[in-house]
Structure formats: C-alpha cells, structure tokens
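Hey team,

Sharing the Cytochrome P450 run so nobody has to redo it. Sequence (359 residues) first:
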Amino acid sequence: MNLLHPLMSTITTYLSSLPLFTKTLAIATSIIAFLLLPVIIRRRNWRDSPPGPIGWPILGYLPYLTERLHEDLFHLAETYGPLFSLQMGQKSAIVVSSPEIAREILKQKETIFSSRTITEAVRCIAYNGTSLVFVPYGARWSLLRKILTTELFSSRAIELLQPARKHQVHGLLSTLYSASKSKTSVNLADSTFVVSANLISNFVCSKTLFDTAKKEGRELKEMVWEILEDAGAPNLADLIPFLKLFDLQNLKRRVQKIAKMLDDFCEKLIDERLEERKEGLKINENGRLDMLDVFLNYRNDKKDDELKQFSRVDIKGMLAWNFPVEILEDMTEKVGITLQKAKVLVGTPKPRLPDSVYQ
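Structure output:
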C-alpha cells in the first residue's frame, strides 16, 4: 500500500491540473475501456465457438429475450441449429436443443461439464458453494459424493428411514381424513410441502422441524420459501458483474438477510448436536446416523486429506443447500407435478366401462 501511495498522489495531481473537458473525456474513455475490454477479450477467446446471434456490447442478447425464454431459444435453434452460442450480458453460454448432442455432453463429456456456475445468491446462502452441488469436480467432490452414497443413500440407510416416511404419510392421511369428515378445504400443495420438508429434516438431523402448529415451524417454513424464491430469481449482476456494486434489484440485501437467518438456524442445529454428543454418540430411534452426525464424524476423524479442512462452515454449507433448497426443491417439484396430474384426473374423470369388464 505504501508503494502505491506516491503513484496515486502523482496521478491525482496530474488530473487536477487538467482542464475540465479533458478530465471528463479521460474519465469517460476509462469507463468505456473498462466495460468493453472484457467483451473484446472474450470474443477473441470464443472465435471457435458455435454460431449464434450478434448482441449488444455489455448487454449481449439480453434485450431480445422475453419472459417466454423457451420459445426464444426454440426460434434461435431454428436459425442457428441445435448447437449455438449466446451472449448473456457479459457471460457466454452454449445452448443445446438436440437430444443426441445433449447425451454426448452429459454422458460422454460428463467430467468436462459437471461443475456448476455459482450465482451471487447461492454464493451468499450456500457459504460460497461448499455444498456437493457446487463443489468443482475433483477429489473433494468425489469424496463428498462417496460419503453421501455409502453413509446416507445406501439401500440400508433408505430402509432405516422408512418409519419416518410412514409416520409423515400417515399424518397427512389423517389430516385429510379429518378435513373430509368436517368438510373443510385443504391446501394440498401446502400440506405436501410440510410432509416433504419433515422427511428431509428427519434425514438431515432426525427432527421434525416443520411443525406448523408451532411458531418456530411456521417461521422455518417461511424462511425456506424465501430461499427458494430468491435463490432462483434472475439476477442481472450474475450476467453483468459490474452491476454488483449497485444491487439494482434489491436482491443482495434480501439474500443477505435470509442468509443470516439460515446461518443462525444451522449454528443452532450444530450446537445442539455437539451438546448431545458430549454424552456419547447416539444413534437415532431408527437405528441410523443422520447427515449431521456423519459429517461431524468425518470432521473429527479427518480420515482423508481432502477433509482436513472440513470446517464448521463446510458442514453448514452442506446443511444449508442439501437441506432447505436442493433436496427439498426436488421433492416438492415432484409432488407438485403429481398433484397437478391428480387434479386433471379428478376434473376430467374417464367414463365408466361396461359392467362386463369389471366382472
């Protein structure tokens, strides 16, 4: 810093001696160069990229995209083929619309394309992407995957989780039965969300956390919905990095607020479990270790070089994403699709076949 001080003083003195017009022109030129230089460099690096539409400087093709993005990409594929490049702000993307090419990318070239882009929201919520979902492909990713596969997703582990699944499903059926007896309406999407969330909470920490009869359960449910909404919201700062300075969508402030709530939640879970473990490691009533215990064990034992730096933050990262976002989003999406199909069948029942068929 001391070495830069004389240089900065010289530049400041020189600029202050210039006429106003010259200073304005110099500043404007510097800003334009700062914005356009990355675009020029990126275009030179992408000379061999697939064909694609020409976009605006800085904005790329964003001004031409609508809310019906799938239709926009379909029309572009008709023009440029099943494999084309697209400039999304200052980020370059390749769009694939051919099953054959997609199969080659996802199967034969899996290791090249396996790492995911970390958005600003995910970086904030998921502790800089320490979860298995966002860890770059490599030794650490392989080890985390091995832990989940052998310790948590084995057929034996899934079988031991069956009592918890039965309990949650029976609870839902009991609620629906009581509502039908009293002719009370039920929000199926909300009810199935709670069931799915409680299944995941049992998997993660052996607790039924989403008890909507309690204030804590309702607050946790609202927090998870906010995470799902904000983590998936389009953010211009992800596509045009210099906009991070301005937070035009007010998304960063919302995400930071939710991230603080999520961090407090994860800290409380870990502290409570560490207190319980002081009396000795306990296996839950289903006869298995949950995700939290498994990762605490690996942190303490340091069985592998890749986990020597497996800190408390890494554990919170696994909880923060695998619990309230990734797994929960996947389950609720599947439940939602099932419910939509059920509604269609109820709304348009098929005509009854002749009695002879049922005999």
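The chain is about 65% helix and 5% strand.

Ping me if you want the raw files.
A.
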